[in-house]
């Protein structure tokens, strides 16, 4: 059996894994990397990037619809087949381009999920791989429903590659993936229902803004069923039948496609982590402040698979740099996580950064909450936007901005200014005294604080 030795061996080729591999190779280390799927990771191949390409057409459609009769003579219509073809122009070359860059740096590529044999040895492609450092950067996969007929669920990969949009769609899970896809599908003409176990969608986001987004979602045809527990999925001749319980009562719904959008979990199955003495829990690999395994010191974890994860691409890259620095220079660099914005790319966008109102109340003696439905403001009116709202939270004692929650056009961009403000301890006066371009969306911040 062939045996290969590496200074560094990386499992996973997303942004976190690529960052470690490239940085260590640049430092002169012998590096190997493997992935059981196409190289490039979730975000570039089957996540953030292709999703935003589909969203671009939805944005144009939304604006034309809102301005119909107000300068636009005829609103647009989504051509799903052509939109998917356009999206493919961006994704088809990602694996090849990723592999080319890695190979140019002298990195040895494998194409299989490895298994631990012992603490320092892996089996991959029928070869024994011995490494001084092993990095796990396998990302996340859809959460299992654990119900009869689970194999009939489609997932986010399937949605982003649909050649033809199903007539009737059910999304099981009202998190950001379910809500984003529901908005796309409804605008493209599908009959859409979201089923969720909770009392509302988007549980981590501000309840007041979520309430407004839910009402608007219903106005574009999205139906919601809450406090519902799925129990079985059955394949019929042309449709699927989902059985679920609401307050002890069994109910059924039929659809052409049923998607599992109930969240994602660390992709750790099949690695035989026990043989590698690598401890893990529901959040991922158990790591210290250096992103090093607490039970096997030659193993590091970064990206969505570490227990320090937030499923955000910029943080994955930062974790990758931390791991690479600690491999090259010894454990000197700890993970420092700034306040990070998060966006639900529905239309309108829902964005958040910093503390929620509940968290701020628990942390500070007195807070000020600026909350307003601002659909009457100029920027919303000029494009006839149906919804624009904000909630900004300030520490009453210092006037520092400690939380911001936005709902509206461009919220996914405007939230970045609030992230910068919170990370730099900026106050209400700091924001009001800043001169922004006018009349821009960002300039509205001065009226929000």
Summed up, what is this model?
31% of the residues lie in helices and 26% in strands. It is α/β, with parallel strands linked by helices.
How would you explain this protein's 3D organization?
- By secondary structure, the protein is an alpha/beta fold.
- Helices cover 31% and strands 26% of the residues.
- It contains 14 helices and 23 strands.
- The strands form six sheets. Strands 1, 2, 3, 4, 5, 6 and 18 form a seven-stranded mixed sheet that branches. Strands 19-20-23-22-21 form a five-stranded antiparallel sheet, with helices on both faces.
- The longest helix is centred in the N-terminal third of the chain and has 19 residues.
- The chain starts with a strand and ends with a helix.
SS strand fraction: 25-35%
Overall mean confidence score, pLDDT: 96
Number of strands: 23
Please state the CA-atom Rg, rounded to the nearest Å: 24 Å
Runs with pLDDT <50, length 5+?
A: none
Can you give keywords for this protein?
single chain; 449 residues; alpha/beta; globular; 7-stranded mixed beta sheet
């Amino acid at each position: 059996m062939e045996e290969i030795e590496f200074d560094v061996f990386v499992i996973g080729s997303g942004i976190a894994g690529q960052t470690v591999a490239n940085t260590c190779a640049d430092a002169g280390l012998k590096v190997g990397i493997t992935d059981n799927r196409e190289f490039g990771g979730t975000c570039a191949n089957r996540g953030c990037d292709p999703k935003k390409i589909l969203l671009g057409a939805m944005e144009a459609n939304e604006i034309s619809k809102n301005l119909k009769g107000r300068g636009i003579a005829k609103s647009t219509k989504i051509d799903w087949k052509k939109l998917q073809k356009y999206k493919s122009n961006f994704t088809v070359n990602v694996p090849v381009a990723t592999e080319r860059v890695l190979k140019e740096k002298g990195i040895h590529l494998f194409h299989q999920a490895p298994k631990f044999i012992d603490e320092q040895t892996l089996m991959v492609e029928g070869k024994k791989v011995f490494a001084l450092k092993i990095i796990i950067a396998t990302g996340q996969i859809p959460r299992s429903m654990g119900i009869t007929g689970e194999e009939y669920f489609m997932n986010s990969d399937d949605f982003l590659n649909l050649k033809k949009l199903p007539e009737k769609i059910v999304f099981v899970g009202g998190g950001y993936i379910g809500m984003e896809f529901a908005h796309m599908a409804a605008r493209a003409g599908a009959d859409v229902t979201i089923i969720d176990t909770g009392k509302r969608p988007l549980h981590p986001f501000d309840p007041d803004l979520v309430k407004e987004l839910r009402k608007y979602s219903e106005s574009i045809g999205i139906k919601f069923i809450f406090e519902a527990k799925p129990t079985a999925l059955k394949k019929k001749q042309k449709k699927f039948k989902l059985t679920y319980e609401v307050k002890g009562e069994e109910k059924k719904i039929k659809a052409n496609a049923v998607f599992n959008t109930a969240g994602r979990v660390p992709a750790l199955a099949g690695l035989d982590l026990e043989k590698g003495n690598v401890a893990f829990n529901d959040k991922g690999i158990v790591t210290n402040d250096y992103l090093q395994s607490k039970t096997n010191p030659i193993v590091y974890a970064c990206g969505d698979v570490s227990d320090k994860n937030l499923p955000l691409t910029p943080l994955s890259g930062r974790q990758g740099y931390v791991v690479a620095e600690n491999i090259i220079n010894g454990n000197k660099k700890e993970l420092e996580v700034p306040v990070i914005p998060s966006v639900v790319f529905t239309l309108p966008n829902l964005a958040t950064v910093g503390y929620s109102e509940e968290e701020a109340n628990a942390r500070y003696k007195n807070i000020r909450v600026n909350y307003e439905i601002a659909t009457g403001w100029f920027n919303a009116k000029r494009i006839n936007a149906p919804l624009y709202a904000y909630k900004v939270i300030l520490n009453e004692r210092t006037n520092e901005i400690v939380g911001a929650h936005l709902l509206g056009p461009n919220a996914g961009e405007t939230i970045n200014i609030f992230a910068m403000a919170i990370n730099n301890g900026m106050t209400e006066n700091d924001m009001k005294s800043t001169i922004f371009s006018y009349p821009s969306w960002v300039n509205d911040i001065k009226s929000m604080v």
